[in-house]
Every structure is written in structure tokens, then in C-alpha cells.
Amino acid sequence: xxxxxxxxxxxxxxxxxxxxxxxxxxxxQDHKVIAIQYGLTAIGIGLVALVLSGLMRLxxxxxxxxxFIDPNDYYQFITMHGMIMVIYLLTALFLGGFGNYLIPLMIxxxxxxxxxxxxxxxxxxxxxxxxxxxxxFVPGGxxxxxxxxxxxxxxxxxxxxxxxxxxxxxxxxxVFIIAFTMGGLNYVTTVLQARCKGMTLMRMPLSIxxxxxxxxxxxxxxxxxLVSAIMMILDSLLGTSFFxxxxxxxxxxxxxxxxxxxxxxHLFWFFGHPEVYIVALPAFGIVSDLLSVHARKNIFGYRMMxxxxxxxxxxxxxxxxxxxxxxxxxxxxxxxxxxxxxxIAVPTAIKxxxxxxxxxxxxxxLTVPMLFAIGFIFTFVHGGLTGLFxxxxxxxxxxxxxxFVVGHFHMVMGVSPILVVFGAIYHWFxxxxxxxxxxxxxxxxxxxxxxxxxxxxxPMHYLGILGVPRxxxxxxxxxFIPESAMTMNTGITISxxxxxxxxxxxxYNMIWSVFRGPKADPNPWKATSLEWLTPDTPPKHGNWGPxxxxxxxxxxxxxxxxxxxxxxxxxxxxxxxxxTVDDHAxxxxxxxxxDGAPQA
Amino acid sequence: MSHEATHEDVQAGSHAAPxxxxxxxxxxxxxxxxxxxVPWGKAMMWIxxxxxxxxxxxxxxxxxxxxxxxxxxxxxxxxVFALSFGGGDPIPLILIAIMTFVLITSSGTMAxxxxxxxxxxxxxxxxxxxxxxxxxxxxxxxxxxxxxKLIVDEGIRPWGNPFGAPQFGSSFFMITGFHGAHVTAxxxxxxxxxxxxxxxxxxxxxxxxxxxVEIAGLYWHFVDLVWVFIFAFFYLW
Lengths: 600, 237
Ligand code: HEM
Ligand SMILES: [Cu+2]
Prior knowledge:
The structure holds two protein chains of two kinds. Chain A is mainly α.
């Protein structure tokens, strides 16, 4: 008998179903369980980052009030908040969480191609999180270098956490990258090599395209971070001088000489900019699917959407130095990077137009996932437009390192992806748990979060134009920051605290619904893509029952004229289009059995 | 079952006959089931190697950058890496030349192993893989010797050395260390796969398909190729 990877196996008999609790839920190789493990861990550590942001806001809104936050603490909070949010929450949640859950289900395979490595990926990720958390408890505390970890200050005396914190941070990042690579190789290979019959690349749902391209970006961008982490560990522990120039540190001549701090910035941002798209592309993909499903309309310009994802992914590797305008560079380079940055706006704008055109004259159902998806369009356009400002050298120079930047990147890569995360959780919750969440609580959660985040970040743009610098513990009295700006800071803090508390509604809704929610329909949104057509809800190990699904159409056949219903599932053969198919198990059986693969 | 048969199994239903040229590329990419006509293990190894290429490129580019940023003169590689035999004149780069030769030779034995794997010649496959692993281990051994000599005799340390720029030692130990770790991992990998060929593991689980040998081979050739770049950029420049 020829060997067939589990992802491609056509008969359940070859699967060894795990039976003990441990193999089923702990050392599980099932992509769905791994996805949930990833998701819960990421949300758990994300809550830590949320609490840290609350503490920072308390300090900024009410300076001289909280004696338990000193300047060092503030820098440590900033650093851990930024790093956790970007890497340990969003990257892990989109790729490890949604990537794991959705890829095999949406492309019609039984699992990832290499489930064992997929399982290891989660455990190594957990290790990375534990190392990161450990840095809160070591002498000196976590590093306070800012999430960009720029040397020389990251490892020089005076910065908090130079003894242990920075080392643990770098080691944790390296371990995270190993975990990501193990998972990422799986995601990419599964998408390329393990699709079911009929699932061509151009029939894949855009969620998969987004996750796929983001994973490729990760596999090519994380190496730069890994290398810079290794070199900074060596600088710090062995006293090499990769990044460290000769300098005075705390009044004494440091033992370094001849290194290049700018080299670190290049490596970091060669990773850092694609990282923005590692977070954004899955969000783009998922939001496209949410809009199409809940507007009962095919996505506008599917092909263009795919090409835009690929173009954005490619371009994201040649814009990194727009983060370094203030570091100084040859004007021609500034010109080059400003140009590429503005060019990226073209495919991005195409996507935005297509989202809006998908809504245009759609049969819009304002469900909770749909609200979040529409909210995303607003916040993303907003953050994207300020990005166009900052991409220009002359505009960036005065605005860099002010609250304008903080407002910009929170809008574009903080709020926007988070809204998609919420939308996606609400959207797939019935499939993942088999139960329905509470719609009313979901709507409260949406409106309070959307309006709350706007009232946090809109004023920040104004503060930035006034010149209020970022990464400051307290502002004291200055000429250029008026009293009213401080009042505004207090207001921002109050909004931030409200937004943080509102997330409890979400947690409560989710936890309550997992146990008490009403049983969900297998396809509550009447969606076409394969994950809604599994024989069981939640899907069992192996996903598809005896036979793999066969796909006959793209994922966006909504409101097709002449069809019996306003959606046609992907596995419905062309001649059956006019028949009503609401029993999905039946639909799977109806698919032709001869998929051409001779089975031994 | 033969290798070709497995191939058929996996891609059945996608294409009748493979097309060539640009049309073939388009047909492959737009096919269902698979984008490339290879087993997934091989595809995964290629993608991994692409990612690893970025790691090594970052290392080498960083080395070049610090070589320019440092304020002290860069040591002369052919003086530092010279070895004298029996009190004669030191011969520049002699050890490195031998190491390079050993590693390139191991690529040859690996290629032969893959070839015999496809012919299902278990014995020759295992022998050649063992030879490859042995050559790899020899390489690592010589590298250990080189490190010892540099550290003990020449006083080169990661943070400084008597010849000039401290970045010389830093880059040297970091890059050759990272590459040496790859070779060591490769030796272990080869031994594992060779054992499985020998004890019939692939006959039992994969119908006698030794494509794992080829996948291990991909990794091994990659590690050798990287060495060629390190040799050119670090030792010859
Ligand atoms: C309620 C939600 C959030 C609040 C209230 C918040 C608040 C803050 C504050 C006060 C700072 C420090 C600004 C400064 O002093 O310069 C900050 C920095 C930052 N935040 Fe958030 N944040 C939130 C969510 C997020 C999310 C979802 C992300 C994910 C991308 C994120 C990423 C960052 C980053 C990268 C930094 C920069 C850290 C640094 O300067 O090193 N934040 N945030
Ligand atoms: Cu950027």
C-alpha cells in the first residue's frame, strides 16, 4: 500500500482516533484542538498585554497619582505590551489559531500534512510564552527597551531589564520563531499540496489566501529577527560588538567598539514591516469572507483580491526603511522607500474598494460578525490614510515619535486586526463549539469596543500634531503641550479603561455560550465554504467522515439567479444547482465517489 | 509499489499529462489537489530551505556590514587560517581547503545514495549514506580542530583578537558555528534515515519508497552550498 499523508487519506479506517483524554485534548495532533490551544494561549497572554496598557494609561491620564508605577515600570510595560500584542497575540492567533483551524477545513483535507510537527509547534510556542512571562519575575524585571529593542540602549546600563529581561525576551523570540516555522511549513505545504479534488487555488476562500501569504511572509521575515536576536544575545552575553559602537555608557567607556546600531534597525524592520502584513493579510482574507457571507453577495473582484494579497506580500519586503527616516539615510534611499510605501497603497486601496463594492446593494445581515467586519473597514481606512502621511519623509520627520504614530499604528494594526479577530470568533464560534453565542451581548460588545477605541485613538492624532512625544512616562510642564492636552489624556485613559472592561462582556459571552448556549445549526450563516459542510458539528477527528469532499465551484456563490436558495455550497455539482440541499451529510454523499485515486 | 506509482496515487485526478514551459507552470499552479508534482515532504523541505536561506543571508550580510562599520583593520584571512606542517612555511587556508573538499565529496556520495535509493538498492543506499555522514562528521571534527587552534594558539575570542577588528572573531565563530550546527544536525538526520532504510521501516510504512533519502539529500546539498558561500565571503575575501 502506498503511503498517503493523513491530510489526503480518503478513508477514515486509516486514521487512528485518539481515545484517551490526554491524546485527545493535551498531546493532540488534531489541527482543530491545536488551533484551540493556540487560540486560548494567545488570548490569555493578550489579556496580560491589555492589563499593561491599562496601567500605562492610568499613569498617562493621572500623572503623579499612582506611586506603584515608576518610570522604569512604565518602559517595561510599554515593551511587553507592544511585543505581546504584535507577536504573541496577533501572529499566534491568526496563524496558529485561525490558520490551524481553517486551512484543513476550508480546503477539504483531513488535517495538516505533518500533524506531529504541528503539535510540537504549539508546545514550543507555549514554551516561548512561558519564557516571556518568566521575565516578569527575574531580578531587574522584563526589558524596558521598547518593542523595537534598539541597541545600544537595549543592552546598556540605565535601561531596565538589561541583566535578565532582555536575554529572556530574545530567547523567547527565538523560540517563538522555531515554533512558528514548524507550524508555518505545515500551513504552506498543506495549502499547496493537500487540497481536495476540485479545490483549485483560484477557488480557495480568501481567508486561506490571506493566511497562506502571511505564513510565507513569516517564513521569510522571521529569519531577520532570529539573526538579530542571536547577534544581540552575543553582544550582551559574550561582549561582541555587532550592534555596539564605542561609547560612553553611564559615564564610563563601554568595552564595545566598531559595531553598527543601524544594522540592527535594518534587520529588525526587514522583519518588522512584513510583520505588519503577517497580521493584516489574514485579517484582509477573513474580513472578505465575512462580508461576502453576511451580505449574501459574491466578493467583488475575487481575482483582483488574490493578486492584491500577493502584491502586498511582495511589496512588503521593500518598504522597511520607512521606519528609519529619522535614523538618517541617503536622500535617494528615502525617496525610494517613500515611493514603494506609497505604491503598496494601490493594491490595498483596491481591496478596500472591493469590500465596499461587495456591500453595495448586498442583502446585508447586520449580524455580530458582520458588524465587526464593517467596523474593520472604517478603522482600517482611517489607519491606512494616516499611513500615507507617514510614508512621506518630510511629513514623517516631525511626526515620528509622537502620538500621531501611536494613533496610526494602533488604528491600522491594533484595532483593525482585533476587530477581525472578534468578528472571526463570533463567525466560527458555532462551528468550533456547536453552540450559539448571545447576539445581544455581542452587539453591545461591538458598539462599545468600536466607539471606545475611536475615542482612544482619534484624540491621539491631535496630540501628535501638537508634538506630544510617545514613550514618555510623564510630561511635566512644557510650553508646547497645553493644559487641555492633559485633560484629553485623562479622557483617553477613561475610554481605555472602559474598553478594557467591555472585553469582559466578550469573555463572559464566550464562556457562558460554550456551556449554556443554544445548540447551533451546522451552517447557521448559510455559508458556501467547506468548513460549514462537515458531517459533524463540531467536526470530528478527520473532519469529513468516510469520503473527502469534492468541490465544484468557488466559495462565493451567493444569491445566484435561478438557484433554489441564496447560496450554493462549494461541494454541490453543477447539475444539482436547482435542487434544494439542506442536509449537508447528504450533500457529501451525493458527490461522485470515483475521485480517480485508486485506493489500495 | 514503485516511486512512480506513489506519484500517480497522490496526484491522480489532477492531470492527464504534464505540460512543459510556461503553460505547464500555469497548469500546475491552477490544478486542484497539488501545486507541485512532488510528495508533500519534499515540498516542505524546499520551503524550509528557502527560509533557511534567508537566515544565512542575514548572517552573511550582517558580517559584511560590520566589516565595513568597524574602525579597526580587518585581519588577513590567509595569514590567520594558515597551517604549517613539520616546522615548514605556513600554508594559507590549507585546512579550509581540505574541509571544503571533504564536504563537496560528501555531496557526491549523497547524490549516489539518492540514486541507489530509487533503484531500491538498500545495501548501497545505506553504505553511501553512512559514508556521507562520516564525511560530514569529519568536517565537523576538522572544524573543532580549527576552532581549538584559533582559540588556544592564536588567542582569537568572540570579543577580540590580536590581529585587528574584534568583529572578525565574532562573525567567524557565529557563522561557522551556525553552519557547523547545521552539519551536525544533518549527520544525525542522515543516520536516522539510513537506519530506517536498513531496518526496513520504509518498506513497512511507505511501500518501499525511499523518497526520504532524497529529502535528506536536499538538506545536505543545501548545507554544502551554504559552505561554498561562507568559504568565498569569509575566507577568500
Ligand atoms: C485597549 C487597547 C490598547 C490600549 C489602551 C493601548 C495603549 C498603548 C499605550 C498607552 C502605549 C504606549 C504609548 C507610549 O507611551 O508611547 C502603547 C504602545 C504600543 N501598543 Fe498599544 N494599546 C492597545 C492595544 C494594542 C494592540 C491591539 C496592539 C497590537 C498591535 C498594540 C500595539 C502597541 C505597540 C506596538 C506599541 C509600541 C510599544 C513601544 O513603543 O515600544 N496595542 N499602547
Ligand atoms: Cu512599515
